[in-house]
Amino acid sequence: GEGRPVIGIALSARATQQLRDAHIHSEDLRTVASFKAWLAHGGRIPDGALVVVDEAGVVGTRDLVAVQESVLAADGQLVLVGDTEQLTEIDAGGYFRSLHRRLSEQVPGYREEHELHTVIRQRDPLDIEALKALRQGDAGGAVRSLDDRGLVFEGADSLEAARQMVADWAAARDSGKE
Fold this sequence. Notes:
Layout: E1 6-10, H1 13-21, E2 29-31, H2 32-40, E3 50-54, H3 61-73, E4 77-80, H4 95-106, H5 110-114, H6 125-135, H7 139-148, H8 158-174
Parallel strand pairs: 1-2, 1-3, 3-4
């Protein structure tokens, strides 16, 4: 942050924890929804602030534009971190992917300087391979990899599946797992 204010924004409270793990202080972290509410109630980004949006690939276009406009108004710097091949946005989206594509086409060396190619969240090599299959459009291969390791449950209906997930979660918690 070079001595300037740093603000972290993520779609979910869980994702803000990952920003906290990256040493952004909790008082400078907001979910997208709380950031928009803060702006609506007169909140203003400090001049020159660095604003990091994590999981930008799943943040809706209107929300990303609202963040971008507030950063521009503060003469700040916006850093969007995300995966262009991740599952689609919940709200109307495509801005992050479109921006990435345009920058890749118009800025020499953009991809080499701004793309990450190392999987960070998944540690298990089989999980990394399943994720790679999913990103390449091979959902069947990804599901087979998970199923081969007993990580897929088929339920008769959503209620049965939900009950099994809660039971599995409780058993994991009781055995000391997070």
